[in-house]
Amino acid sequence: MGKSITGLVYNIFNNAGFIISEADDFNETILDGLYSDIQKEADALNTEKALNNIPTSPVETEIKGNYFFDFSLLKNSTLPYSSKETILPFLNSVRFNRLEILCDHVMPWFDSEMKKRNLLYTVTEEGKGKCRILVKPVDVTKNATIC
Question: How many angstroms separate the CA atoms of 14 and 11, rounded?
Fold first, then answer.
């Protein structure tokens, strides 16, 4: 048993994914502490990976022109996005036939922004504090929604 590892052997183990640690003593307490530190780091990486998979804007579904956005998922994460920061840029830049938003309430700014953009929306209560907002453009020539 040695006190340190360097050079070629260190590089081989490190490149193979081994965690290399040095300690003046070896006992169960040190091993438990090392395991705890590794577990915390792994949990942090998993949390970061999960956060990176949360959409921050509507995503097109299998049907071209139809979009879905689970804003409640984003809102309940630690990511610092507001509904205005995520939905308004989408409304300003994407032509769509249908936008479905899952959230916990209709945002206070929603009604005025929908009117400005000639969009109609309906709200369906989903239960458990969630609602589903369905947004569709208005065909001003026929005064009807585009499906």
Answer: 5
- Give the model's confidence band at 145: pLDDT under 50 very low, under 70 low, under 90 confident, else very high: very low
Does this model's pTM top 0.90?
Answer: no
**Which candidate, 20, 94, 31, places its Cα nearest to that of 57?**
94
Separation between Cα atoms, residue 60 and residue 65, nearest integer Å: 7
Three-state SS at 98: strand
Query: Taking a C-beta distance cutoff of 8 angstroms, is the pair 134, 99 a contact?
Result: yes
Instruction: Express each pLDDT in 88-133 by its tens digit.
Output: 999 999 999 999 999 989 999 999 999 999 999 999 998 888 899 9
**CA–CA gap between residue 109 and residue 123 (Å, rounded):** 15
Decide if pLDDT at 23 tops 80: no
- ∠ CA 92-95-99, nearest 5°, is 90
Identify the residue whose tokens are 């340190």.
Answer: 4
